[in-house]
Design a protein that fits this description.
Length: 443
């Protein structure tokens, strides 16, 4: 690999021998189906185009590093020029500064920490030994962050980056408050569990017909025409096949709202700041095998790769997990150089990334203080999302239980409503709009 990072964490590599077993050949059939629809020639055409694009793109990312991630002040998001908006959409990630004031974020953090300490014996988290992604969904801080008027307004703006049919009665940019966990990450404890991955499912991108249709252009030889902001296509995509640890909700953008300051090497986020080419490459990769030669120049020469669907291996794909990528299995991405740190975050800042974006969380937190974020996404209104919200609000009203996406293997046998400091519905801001987003007004 050219110009490898001095330090690359011990994140897993993916090989066919460690891939998902395919005893019945069903994985192979998924590949064959895509080839029969699109033709080998088109898939090869796309492969060469995407790898060519990556040659210059990866140089640009490696050279600019963190500076390539756009930063916008909250106020400027309210009046974005078309040009700026296109830049944000192309990158697929950006920081929005000052969504709430530093003072507000500090208060939220203080409240959250107190809530955690007061109820610690009943709060589990991940990883099990040193939990810091806390299985908490309804603390006053989370309720307020999701429904704060400035936050909700931003969520709406981000949902509007996507387009649907003007006549579609079932979708809208009206934000929904997807209840996710919260993080209070203490310093000095390494955590390797979140290497490069893409959320919103994995194998289902190739398998579910509605989901696959989002990427038609990639398989049809025109990856440059891929539109990752088409809500009309994406709204029916099934992000989960057989359960597993997945968000079943379409999030236009995933997001972190910083409650504390954190910079590089403080448990921060790494992003691959070009969403379209990356996802196209990940989707095409299973249809090719590398040249016999292990010389770097041969491996990096896409024309030397063979079209090959003799096996059912999808590199880095395990159906019930997020899609993974690694330097060995996805060499043209040059992830060692192109996973770049987000800029330093201050309390009240937010960072957003498209649901197809490759991202990771730093292994090290070498700072001195807790690094805390609330996971607040921009979630548009769709039929699937509304159906989820109707269940989510039941969990909330039924004593503050864990929402369905977090219930599975992590079933929580306690009600947050019994916690000291519980405020329930009173914690939701923004009046009717906040209540609608939370699912408390009939959807
Ligand atoms: Fe993730």
């Amino acid at each position: 690999m050219p110009g490898t990072l001095k330090v690359w964490p011990d994140w897993p590599e993916f090989t066919s021998s460690k891939g998902e077993a395919d005893p019945t050949g069903s994985l192979l059939k998924y590949k064959q189906e895509i080839v029969s629809i699109n033709g080998q020639e088109n898939i090869q055409k796309s492969w060469l185009k995407v790898c060519k694009e990556l040659e210059t793109l990866t140089d640009e990312i490696a050279e600019k590093g963190t500076n390539i991630i756009p930063e916008v002040k909250y106020e400027d998001m309210l009046n974005l020029s078309e040009e700026k908006k296109e830049e944000l959409k192309k990158r697929g990630c950006f920081v929005v500064r000052g969504v709430v004031s530093e003072e507000q974020a500090n208060t939220w953090f203080k409240d959250l920490k107190q809530f955690y300490l007061d109820n610690k014996s009943d709060i589990s988290g991940w990883p099990e030994e040193t939990p810091f992604v806390l299985r908490l969904y309804w603390s006053p801080t989370q309720l307020a962050a999701r429904s704060h008027p400035r936050h909700l307004r931003l969520q709406r703006i981000l949902n509007e980056f996507w387009h649907d049919s003007p006549t579609s009665p079932t979708t809208s940019p009206d934000p929904l408050s997807y209840a996710d966990a919260v993080r209070i990450r203490p310093p000095k404890i390494p955590f390797p569990g979140l290497g490069p991955h893409i959320d919103a499912g994995s194998l289902c991108r190739w398998v579910d017909p509605a989901y696959r249709s989002v990427y038609d252009k990639v398989f049809a030889g025109s990856p440059e025409e891929l539109d990752l902001y088409d809500l009309e296509k994406r709204k029916d995509a099934k992000q989960s096949m057989d359960g597993g640890y997945h968000s079943t909700v379409l999030r236009a953008y995933q997001g972190w709202t910083a409650l504390t300051a954190a910079g590089k090497q403080e448990g921060s986020l790494l992003l691959y700041p070009d969403v379209k080419t990356t996802i196209a490459y990940v989707l095409l990769r299973p249809f090719f095998s590398p040249p016999e030669s292990d010389k770097e120049e041969d491996i990096m020469d896409a024309s030397k790769w063979k079209f090959d669907i003799s096996s059912g291996w999808f590199p880095g794909t395990f159906r019930n997990e997020s899609q993974r990528a690694a330097p060995g299995s996805h060499p043209h991405l040059r992830v060692r150089e192109c996973m770049v740190n987000i800029p330093r975050m201050e309390p009240g800042d937010t960072v957003w990334w498209h649901c197809d974006m490759l991202h990771a969380v730093e292994v090290e937190h070498l700072g001195e203080n807790d690094a805390s974020v609330v996971y607040v996404a921009a979630t548009p209104t769709t039929e699937i999302n509304k159906a989820y919200m109707r269940e989510q609000v039941k969990a909330f009203l039924d004593g503050g239980k864990a929402p369905a996406d977090f219930g599975g293997d992590y079933s929580v046998d306690r009600n947050e409503s019994e916690f000291k400091g519980w405020v329930g519905e009173a914690g939701i801001l923004s009046g009717e709009e906040g209540r609608r987003a939370a699912g408390l007004v009939a959807l």
